[in-house]
Amino acid sequence: PKKRNTMEKECMSFELTQNDEECLSSVFFEFSDGYFACCRNIFEDDIIYYEMNDQANSSYSNDCQYCIDNNSIRFDFTELVSNELKCDTVLTIRYKMSELEKDTLNKCLTEIFSCI
């Protein structure tokens, strides 16, 4: 199997939105040198939107998986998505969050990825 390239980022700040008044669920992670966001309108869209550092580096795709462990989240992208985002096929984001924030992160991602 081909070795997957991993990009590791340290999160400086984050914003978690769960099903706001526009039915949007999103996660936004800010790094010292950019950001990563993913979101979905949970009533209108059945595909997930990703953005890395710039709107030019974005992708609509359901070919992605995520995995949360204690203080990080890992996104696994297909080659196509990673090319569109101009990042590696694996993106690991390390963060410091309270239990409540982790719970919110989990709920947001569950909603965003519920279309897969």
Description:
The protein contains 2 helices and 9 strands, in the order ββββββββαβα. The protein has helices at 79-85, 99-112; strands spanning 6-10, 13-17, 24-31, 34-41, 48-52, 54-61, 64-69, 72-77, 90-94. The strands form 2 sheets. A 5-stranded antiparallel sheet has the order 2-3-4-5-6, with helices on one face. Strand 2 (13-17) and strand 3 form a beta hairpin. The radius of gyration is 13 Å and the shape is globular. The two termini are 25 Å apart.
Question: Topology, please?
Answer:
Blueprint: E1 6-10, E2 13-17, E3 24-31, E4 34-41, E5 48-52, E6 54-61, E7 64-69, E8 72-77, H1 79-85, E9 90-94, H2 99-112
Parallel strand pairs: 1-9
Antiparallel strand pairs: 2-3, 3-4, 4-5, 5-6, 7-8, 8-9
N- and C-termini, Cα separation: 25 Å
Strand order of the largest sheet: 2-3-4-5-6
Record field, number of beta strands = 9
Largest sheet: number of strands, sense, barrel closure = 5 strands, antiparallel
What is the N-to-C order of secondary-structure elements (H for helix, E for strand)? EEEEEEEEHEH
How big a fraction of the residues is strand?
A: over 45%
Determine the fraction of residues in helical runs and give it as a percent range.
Answer: 10-25%
